[in-house]
Amino acid sequence: MNFPELHGWDLSATEAVALQRELAQRVDLTPRLGDCRILAGADISYNKFSTTLYATIVVIAWPSGDVLETQDVVAEQTFPYIPGLLSFRELPPFLTAFRRLQTVPDVVICDGQGIAHPRRFGVAAHLGMWLGIPTIGCGKSRLCGTFTPPDLPRGSTSPLMDHDQRIGTVVRTRTGINPLFVSPGHAVSHEQAVEVVLMASPKYRLPETTRLADHRVNLLRQQANAAAAESPAYPDADSSENLLNSDTPEAD
DNA sequence: GCGACAG
DNA sequence: ATCTTGTCGC
């Protein structure tokens, strides 16, 4: 995919919040979503206490579910996780992966919120503004807003409200299972966002795109861990003590 | 000041 | 998000 640089990423948390307020003004949710035959999912994983991020994009055909393309990226974290500023941590590696993508998806389903965000600029809205294609926020939990739990049957919904404004929809994708938090990211309506998420989640709680990306990104990380254990860049302290100290006199 | 807080 | 075994329920 090809897309222009929207802004730089060398920001403080304060600057990031200011940028969100600025960019949120330009969010355009005018529905421009046509056919949904090519869906994309994106996910990130990392080792606890590590700053290395593993990112994966999975593109699938629908309704066949066939995987059309995947892209993996390993990158160092450039921004920490701060609630409300998730996109500044996750978008840099995602954008690298999307640049390498040969297939242009009809819609991207993101892990996290779209406009259901304190400044109406969650990760899906931010990604959509960069890519210029329809995106949907589909979080497993709530960032902000109030709601009444939807009825138990799959397909039941309940509006996610921030005071008097609707910012998303709480959607039950499996009967009796915890609902998802769905909101428009870019170029989609509330209704379309819900429709797409329900379509992409026929059997499990999470959309197939999210499940596939989640599975693959964890394989990527675990394989990297195994490779690192097999041929470490630097031997661990215990096994290297003798080698490292062989020409170093002991202290008195 | 206190509680909440996507991944 | 990650760590982590078994277990309760449809």
TrEMBL record:
The record marks 81 as: Interaction with target DNA. Residues 241-252 have a biased composition (Polar residues). The keyword Cytoplasm applies. Its EC number is 3.1.21.7. It catalyses: Endonucleolytic cleavage at apurinic or apyrimidinic sites to products with a 5'-phosphate. NCBIfam families: PRK11617.1. This is Endonuclease V. It comes from Tuwongella immobilis.
